[in-house]
Design goal:
Layout (H helix, E strand, L loop, with lengths): L2 H14 L4 H16 L11 H15 L6 H15 L11 H9 L3 H18 L2 H8 L10 H16 L1
Helix pairs in contact: 3-4, 3-8, 4-5, 4-6, 4-8, 5-6
């Protein structure tokens, strides 16, 4: 039986069962989503975006940044900058305003939130973890938002690529 004949047969069965063409279109869309995320061997493939978000969450957890608005702003900054590092130059003109729009806050609130998250990390994270991320002389570093973001993005690239 050809594909066309089989499709006609399926349409007839669906029509007899009370389903219309819109139902078929929804089913096709659903099948497409499943096929994109299914590896054919019983496992769902993890999309690139999920891998990136998992990496960000794991890093922020290791750095002892507590969940909350500051965590959310920092996480979104990392995601946006990972996907397009041009937003980091300068972050105050591009990155923070874009994140602010997403969360309906001002760019200054995002910038201060990121700074607070960094301060929490430096205060709460284990010394070994901070050395692993920022080097043995991290205490002498003037760790600005930009430096912090750039270092984490490089770490993400090393993990994900």
């Amino acid at each position: 039986m050809s594909k066309r004949e089989r499709a006609r047969e399926i349409l007839e069965v669906l029509g007899n069962a009370g389903y219309g063409i819109q139902d078929l279109i929804l089913l096709i869309d659903l099948i497409g989503e499943i096929e994109m995320n299914y590896d054919g061997e019983g496992a769902v493939k993890v999309t690139e975006e999920v891998k990136i978000n998992d990496t960000i969450n794991e890093m922020l957890h290791e750095l002892q940044i507590p969940k909350g608005p500051n965590y959310t702003y920092l996480s979104e900054c990392l995601l946006m900058a990972y996907n397009d590092n041009t937003v980091l130059r300068p972050a105050t003109k591009k990155l923070y305003p874009q994140v602010g729009v997403k969360f309906n806050v001002g760019a200054m609130a995002v910038q201060k939130g990121v700074q607070r998250a960094i301060s929490e990390s430096l205060k709460n994270a284990k010394t070994e973890t901070l050395k692993m991320y920022f080097g043995p002389d991290y205490e002498k570093m003037h760790l600005t938002n930009d430096k912090f973001l750039n270092i984490l993005i490089v770490k993400m690239q090393n993990i994900l690529l």
